[in-house]
Amino acid sequence: MPDWQEISGGVTAPKGYQAAGITAGLKPSGLPDLALILSDVEAIAAGVFTTSQVRAACVDYCRQRLQTKHYARAILCNAGQANAATGEQGVLDAQESAQLLAGELNIPVESILLASTGVIGQRIKMSAMRTGIPKLVAALSQTGSDAAAQSIITTDLVPKSIALETTIGDRPVRLGGIAKGSGMIHPNMATMLAFVTTDAAVSPHLWQEMLSRAADRSFNSITVDGDTSTNDCLIALANGQSRTPAITEMGQDAEKLEAMLTAVCQHLAKAIARDGEGATCLVEVQVTGAHDEEAARQVAKTIVGSSLVKSAIFGRDPNWGRIAGAAGRAGVKFDQENLRIQLGDLLLMENGQPLEFDRAAASGYLQQAAAGAYMKEDTVLISVSIGNGHGSATAWGCDLSYEYVKINAEYTT
Amino acid sequence: MPDWQEISGGVTAPKGYQAAGITAGLKPSGLPDLALILSDVEAIAAGVFTTSQVRAACVDYCRQRLQTKHYARAILCNAGQANAATGEQGVLDAQESAQLLAGELNIPVESILLASTGVIGQRIKMSAMRTGIPKLVAALSQTGSDAAAQSIITTDLVPKSIALETTIGDRPVRLGGIAKGSGMIHPNMATMLAFVTTDAAVSPHLWQEMLSRAADRSFNSITVDGDTSTNDCLIALANGQSRTPAITEMGQDAEKLEAMLTAVCQHLAKAIARDGEGATCLVEVQVTGAHDEEAARQVAKTIVGSSLVKSAIFGRDPNWGRIAGAAGRAGVKFDQENLRIQLGDLLLMENGQPLEFDRAAASGYLQQAAAGAYMKEDTVLISVSIGNGHGSATAWGCDLSYEYVKINAEYTT
Asked: Do B218 and B293 fall into the same domain?
């Protein structure tokens, strides 16, 4: 049983945070497009960023900032223009955005982190940014998380938010997060953003370590279509306002905080996968018996990312051969005689050989689980064992539907 | 200008080869399903096989055979059952098939290589094999290549065949090939097979080296959906019947032979990509300026394999941002300020920044090139430069259409 409970409030659930989201006029649609998360005091800041060689200005900005200073107070996020592939001018626009906000909040510019999402190759509409920032600051509130969550999405069907509470040293500690997924209805949009806040007190090095591990077990374990964005970023703030003992090394309290951080990241990651373009269900692949966790994750991600497996799930076809095929090409060595594949509770393959299974029952499971997954109550569960090792990992994705192709082919007629 | 001319005859164009293809009753459809290629004399044999951990019995059989003996006379290929994930019985079935053919041809069993394609998890129908093999041998002919090409396909729309002729030491040397693609209409089918013959005289080590390089520049540079098969194999025979001087080291003659081998493999590989499931056009991605050829290939394959890029091409949308995004996540380091992207003759991006280009013209190019590609007269050409290095490579693929999803979702209604 997890050692925490779900609460409301998103990123403003932890003590000492405010947030806001407004329509600044960046999106052509007129929907909310500018968000701010502010900590009352300097917070420990950690980040995980896209590994792409083609990056937005905000990604390089944050990465450089966090290399020299592990603290921040504010995260400013615009939606509508990705400010990627915008060259030197894009860098200047990012810097000006930070300076405008620093002036309005009367804090050092170094305390500000930036994120952008939207069309690649488009600069941020700076006139809208200049008039928007004062309004954004004026809108800050301790219940502003939902407005912020609404303002960072682009083509997501729903905003994504979660908050959890546990106790450390008999005092409540809270951790919340918001995210946007890779909804790519419009050209060039492909970004995953997530922002996490906590009022726990934790040392910078440990917080970054925890965040990197949590990212591997959540955002780095989902795939919608295998396309990494120029703007992907996960930023986590820890401001210590819970007044709980500072966590400076691994131990019981640290494990509790990391488990809660991982749970928040996994919730948001699964919400992104479920909201994948054209997806009709959430797919979870659990791999066990690998040499280590990394090998298990590699196999799980290859299976959940296989177009053939995804198409079969869309067709509610219990196609174990495609699952075996994807496992085999994952780049992880294993003996095919140890391969075992299960769909829900149904064993389809054991010792590397297919079993006589009830095809109708297996197809029925897929129909039922997919229907449940659509209702957000269930997932299509694929369990794969590749040997006797202790490495295990889980990856999440969605099926591949006509709708995905339709969305991304962007018929102009 | 290439140093050769195209001729007819496929794998029986070179001297000293016969081939056959018959309906043995392996496929439920009643279409031709058993093929044989026979060299009059022992031929140097080289092979490239799937890297998957889940492999068909024939793959392990051939790999082991070629490790101990670099010669072969015959390639036997069945379509209908993949004989993958069939355990020890699958190995016995493969061995029995080879023995049956060896008896019928009155040659040593060690002179026979095997390939299978079809449904994973299904054993070869041995009763059909037993009655089929004598008929197959009886059907052997010096013009049997087309029948063989027809018998190895599963869900391909068209058989794939090519032959070229050049001169070495003033005498004609011929090289031919047949292939099947990854048509996966039925569950669990996902195999690429290619067989090449030549009458050149070449040493075993050199022939294997040439084949490996040619495979990297052709079959390993195409992608339909990124799914590697359990049964993929490329086998090449060189029987020396041209009576031309033996090629034992790299030099002018060797380069001529390798260039012709690469051209045959590229022709077959492009035919497979063009015939990809649901594809409406062939896409060619040329990458230059990389550190080395391998890095360039990695970027080219990532772009041509991106679901977002493939969907955009299906929608005839000149979406340079998705091309830049895919290049960036290919796992190859480059400076984004050096990125240059061209669609046909139209420059879309230079120095890492988008240019003002004529969107209608770019979309028009896509429409025209795709229409031409469908007629097999043209390709959609994407050229990408990532720096000043000398590494270049080309990869081929196809677009992602509704039809792909439909084929692979396998609606039972």
From this structure: no
Cβ neighbours of B185 in A, within 8 Å: none
| Chain A environment of B231 (Cβ under 8 Å) | none
Residue B187: CATH number of its domain: 3.60.70.12
Provide CB contacts within 8 A for B89, sequence distance 6+: B123
Report the alpha-carbon distance of residue A79 to residue B404 in Å, rounded. Answer: 33
Question: Within this chain, do residues B240 and B315 fall inside the same structural domain, yes or no?
Answer: no
Contact B402/A402, CB-based, under 8 Å? yes
Of A257, A274, A291, the one marking the end of a domain is A274
Give me the half-sphere count of Cα atoms (radius 13 Å) on the Cβ side of residue A305. 25
Q: In this structure, what token pair is assigned to residue B231?
A: 């049964």
Nearest neighbour of A53 by CB, restricted to B228, B336, B349: B336
pLDDT tens-digit series, residues B39-85: 999 999 999 998 888 888 999 999 999 999 999 999 999 999 989 88
B141, B185: one domain: yes
Judgement on whether residues A141 and A220 belong to the same structural domain of the protein = yes
Cα–Cα distance, A27 to A32 (Å, whole number) = 8
Short-list B384, B261, B259, CA closest to B326: B384
Mark whether B95 and B231 lie in a shared domain: yes
Contacts of B102 (CB under 8 A, 6+ apart): B108, B109, B111, B112
Please name the amino acid found at residue A266: Q
The ipTM is 0.77
Chain B contacts of A333, Cβ < 8 Å? 53
- A409 and B332: CB-CB below 8 Å? no
CB contact under 8 A, A54 and B327: yes
What does the pLDDT read at residue A300? 95
Q: Are residues A168 and A45 in the same domain?
A: yes
- Residue A107 main-chain phi, psi, to 5 deg: -130, 165
Residues B124 and B209 in one domain: yes
Integer distance in angstroms from the first to the last C-alpha of chain A? 52
One domain, residues A39 and A86: yes
> B160: domain range?
5-274
Can you tell me whether residue A61 is helix, strand or coil? Answer: helix
Q: Position A139: which residue type?
A: A
Q: What is the CA radius of gyration of chain A?
A: 22
Stretch A373-388: mean pLDDT, rounded? 82
Final residue belonging to a domain, choices B274, B304, B321? B274
| Cα gap B259→B394, rounded to integer Å | 15
Active site residue A117: no
Distance, CA of A105 to CA of A108 (rounded, Å) = 9
State how many domains chain B has.
2
- To probe the interface with A, which of B336, B347, B349 has the most A CB atoms within 10 Å? B336
Q: Cβ of A352 and B121 within 8 Å? A: no
CATH code (residue A373)? 3.10.20.340
Distance of alpha carbon A36 from the chain centroid: 18
Q: Which of A191, A197, A280, A379 is catalytic?
A: A191
Asked if B315 and A408 come within 8 Å (Cβ–Cβ), the reply is yes
Assess contact for A142 and A20: CB atoms under 8 A.
no
- The partner residue sitting opposite B190, judged by closest CB among A53, A325, A332, is A325
Among candidates A50, A353, A405 on the partner chain, residue whose Cβ is nearest the Cβ of B400 = A405
Chain B residue whose CA is closest to A316: B409
- Indicate the length of chain A as a whole number: 413
With an 8 Å Cβ cutoff, are A328 and B408 in contact? no
- Decide if pLDDT at A412 tops 50: no
The first and second tokens of residue B338, run together, are 């050096």
B406, pLDDT greater than 70: yes
Closest CA of chain A from B349, distance in Å:
9
User: What residues contact residue B308 under an 8 Å CB cut-off, 6+ apart?
Assistant: A184, A190, A225, A227, A408, B319, B322, B325, B326
Phi-psi region of A83 (alpha: psi -120 to 50; beta: other; left: phi over 0): left
